[in-house]
Design brief:
It holds the Pfam family Peptidase_M14. By secondary structure, the chain is of the alpha/beta class. The chain is built from 11 helices and 14 strands.
Length: about 450
Amino acid sequence: MPMLSFRRFLAAGTATLLALLVAPPGRATAAAPEPAYYDVTSTSTFTTTAGLAADLTRRGYDVLEGPLTRAVPILATAAEAQRLRARGLSVRYAGPLHQPVATTWLAAANTYYGGYHTTAGHEAHNQAVVAAHPDTAVLRTIGQSWLKTQGTGGHDIQALCITKIRAGDCATTTTGTKPKFTLMAQMHARELATGELAYMWIDYLVNNYGKVAAVTTLMDTTELWVIPIANPDGVDIVSSNSTRPISQRKNAHTNGCSGTGKGVDLNRNSSYHWDVNQGTRCSETYPGASAASEPETRGIQSFLSSIYRDTKPAADFSPATTGTTGTFLTLHSYSELNIFPYGWTNNLAPNNADLRTIANAMAKANKYDVVHGDGGLNYFAPGATDDWIYGTLGVPGYTIEVGPSGSSCGGFFPQYSCMSTFWNLNLPAFMALATAAARPYPTGK
């Protein structure tokens, strides 16, 4: 894993900066072992790839999403791969972590790695959108990043409400007249394509009201909320090297670990089925010291609870009512999957038929596989946000895993030119899920 040392600001009556938490975009970070993608198989010790995946996860390896048909995909350094070979496992190099960035490319302000936007870039964009479109966009602060709660920099977590604004719209209340659709991105900081898709979704909506009939109808009838960057501190770390982004998944919570071991996995930290056994402190899936321990998690959960009505009994397998309104989508990468509840168990959710119907409509657009539970993945995801919003509020929660596992458009750091393909595939899926917000459970099954 890339190793990057950070120090905190010294606050002792002086503003002298002893060390930067992250280098400014464009400045190269210290040399570190370069991770790459590998496929791991076993012909003797493990009889199934699922068993091998579980063992690698327990040992702290960065086990990745993907079907277990042939091998377990991991992100590892060459030294880590060699240690696995020494255990008698077969380890095949599958590709580099980074794609080349043209030497002629000059980073525009608040961009990195060919055009992706930094946290500051998203914040400037949010401000520009509401200034240019006061009749269709409202910007709200819904929480704070871990560093900001410590008084050492950090960011507010921002959400845009996009709709044709009428009296009472975009208020943080469950009694509004319009159903809500929320798209959230970059909870895992290294998943670059997700934040960029949120940026593009915002522009598509505000620039096409009154021009594209489907957009106009949607904005007249629905509040479209967007959380472009759910993990802003993590994105600062990722973008600290403008041509070879840092593979930071978690937030920036200081936990005694170095490099990308720092932090908490926000997508294991929700207060629904939080599981202490998801990972040790330095592992990529470390769920935190307790459920909703992180300020990012608390802010997002509080915000979502303030705009969606609770229509589901507390019991896991009691269905939400047919009067439920609203839908929710969290973007992750990669593996080309549309995931619907539940992700913490293979048991069917009580609204399974209606949940799957919406997922199938999304798949008709983006051509990604439809799965739930551990289907298509190497692990369950207890404590994930999509399960939290369905399990606690009854709102249909979905995850799209954007992008393939191979080629220059694969992995966590696809070439920026791939964004047009991702956008064309997923825009109709976003529209399908947003449209379903008015009545997501027509059958109640």
